[in-house]
Write a structure and sequence with these properties.
1 helix; OB fold (Dihydrolipoamide Acetyltransferase, E2P)
């Protein structure tokens, strides 16, 4: 069976949402809670704005209670919906390349459109 470690980023399934946090199933043995303070660095008015029951997300392990098989988790500093990478590790170079390649074309099109008016 898998041995989990603190600071490991894991995939889990959202099983419940309360005003104070998100319940997740990690595997057949472990479950966890993402407290509302670990959802975002910003004020969280409604957790439903971030996740829904049934979502598969990534979470970072804060602590593990091996007796109860319960984990405290966080999603606030990772790309929890897509890759699980920490926010500063996400490669945005592809998005910037698209912008770099297309910006001159878009500017030309807009200038032509304005000159036709």
């Amino acid at each position: 069976m898998k041995k989990y470690k603190k600071d490991e980023i894991i995939k889990c399934l959202v099983s419940g949402i309360e005003s104070y946090g998100v319940f997740v199933n990690v595997d057949k043995r472990y479950n966890g809670l993402i407290h509302i303070s670990e959802v975002s660095n910003e004020f969280v008015r409604n957790i439903d704005d971030y996740v829904k029951v049934g979502d598969e997300i990534f979470a970072k392990i804060i602590s593990i209670d091996e007796n109860t098989k319960h984990m405290k988790l966080s999603i606030k500093d990772i790309d929890f919906a897509n890759t699980g990478l920490e926010r500063d590790e996400i490669d945005s170079s592809k998005e910037f390349k698209i912008l770099k390649d297309n910006l001159p074309i878009w500017m030309e099109e807009k200038l032509n459109e304005l000159n036709e008016k």
